Fold:
Amino acid sequence: MQFRRRWAVAFAALALVLAVAAGCGAPAADRAKVDNLVVNVIDVGQGDAILIRTPGQVTLVDSGDTPARDKLVAYLKKQGVTTIDNFIVTHPHADHIGGAAAILDNFAVRKVFDSGQTATSAIYRQYLAAVKKKDIPFALLAAGQEIDIGGGALKVLNPPATPFTGEAAVNNNSIVARLTYGNFAMLLAADAEQDAEAAMVKRYGAGLKSQVLKSGHHGSRTSSSAAFLKAVDPEAAVISLGKDNEYHHPHPSLLKRYADRKLKVYRTDTDGTVTVSSDGKTYKIAKER
Structure:
């Protein structure tokens, strides 16, 4: 995979509004140490922020919404994080990129991965400006690529080479990845909805199988279709969402689909940060409260 220090073609339209001088990358620093895989689905309210640590690297997937950015930064520092080897931005909705600029300002980020989707929001422009200012290597991800995360891997399953169109395009083109560590797998579904799920089932089939599912789109009724759940065949699901959120997530129909499959369900709104750990053979899940 080739990293570029120039903006991808998808970002050319924003060049005029990103007239920020290039700066130097942040110096390297010690990483938070773990003995095996540790995944924290962080309680950032209505949004996603997932910290993945292996003995070799630190990876952050998304950064929650703007109101949670200080909480996210404080949480990462408490975990001993100083360097983020891979920062993955699944798509440009505010509840996934709201803390991105704060992450780039507070930590030494070595690589940024993006879906290539653009937005006109101030939050999105701030994120891109911070990447450019610090001159951080930047790459777009698409289905079929794989990221080495130091003892484990993230296989990218979505977005497809030909992007989805339509009302739910931004969600359906978000980065979905299957995390593997030894014999353990966890599927990170971002905000993928049923069109993206159907395409992944068709392309990968049983290759989606994972013990743990990070529920798509915060427990929306438009995600976790029956066919998708059959292919993933998870034993547990983790839903990242805010308490009493305006979208009424998780939807009762989704919870019924989980109940029908007898899944153990964890929710950040009631359980706080949910931690999944594995030695590559077995796994355990712990909740904050």
About this structure: The CA atoms of residues 49 and 63 lie 5 Å apart. Residues 122-134 form the longest helix (13 residues). The chain has one domain: 34-287. The radius of gyration is 18 Å.
